[in-house]
Specification:
Layout lengths: L13 E4 L5 H12 L3 E6 L2 H14 L6 E6 L5 H14 L5 E4 L17 H22 L4 E6 L13 H5 L6 H22 L5 E7 L14 H9 L7 H4 L1 H8 L10 E3 L2 E2 L9 H15 L4
Parallel strand pairs: 1-2, 1-4, 2-3, 4-5, 5-6, 6-7
Antiparallel strand pairs: 7-8
Helix pairs in contact: 1-2, 3-4, 4-6, 6-10
Amino acid sequence: MAAPAPDFSMRGKTVLLTGATGGLGSATARELARRGAHLLLVGRNPQKLATTLAEVQQAGAAAGASAEVLVADLSLLSDVRQLAEEVTRHHAHLDVLINNAGIMGGKHTITAEGHELSWATNHLAPFVLTNHLLPLLLAAPQGRIINVASEAHWLGQIEASQEVRNARSRYSGITAYCDSKLANILFTNELAHRLDLTNITANCLHPGLVDTGLMHPGAPRLMRTLWWMAKPLLVSPEHGARTTVYLATSPEVARVSGQYFKNSRPGRFAERAGNRAEAFRLWRISAEETGVAG
């Protein structure tokens, strides 16, 4: 097991964290609060956000931490854009952006904007949010972007056609999740390449098999069965948050970019996840689907 991340201070640092009300997200928020960060907590449920806010305020009281909540449904890109606009209106810089929110799709669902649900939430939302917040990250002394990916990326592939990706006849909740996790790594690699000469780093990570709410009752039956069988091997959200916290706080990775981390160390990833041509192709596809400048 990975050792706990060293207790590097985050006093004076502003951190935006999506998926803040889930097990992994709330554990990350509490740990960053203990280090004195100012947290922008993003979630879609106001009641759950209120609970997380209270936990964060308690955890960070001694360190002088502070927090605010932002309500957004990340499956809707209109909400993502409004979120970015609100953050930009009220903050001059952003030190750390943690794209943590993620879902395991259940039944085949197309959003009101025409995107498959897992693809929209797990990939397009981070793509849009990150691109819109780049000016704030550039305004920080040293901006960090952290994307929570998964070992599930080994089974993923990127379908260029949105029509094919949205087709009910081809849909599998497991496949959709794996594809989106591969997209997280490819996006990170292309982002790191584009930001190479800036003050911003971009890295991604596998948090481990974490016992969180990701496996909701609507998730595919096979995945829920495998999850139940793996229950004895699952780690706590606090343990799962260690690599995210390490990437957000450690001076050791202040100049490290474009890497995939496991247990707070660079890890092995699928060959296709490191393919530069695939990364560029994904960026082009994502830009076309979201309207973000390519």
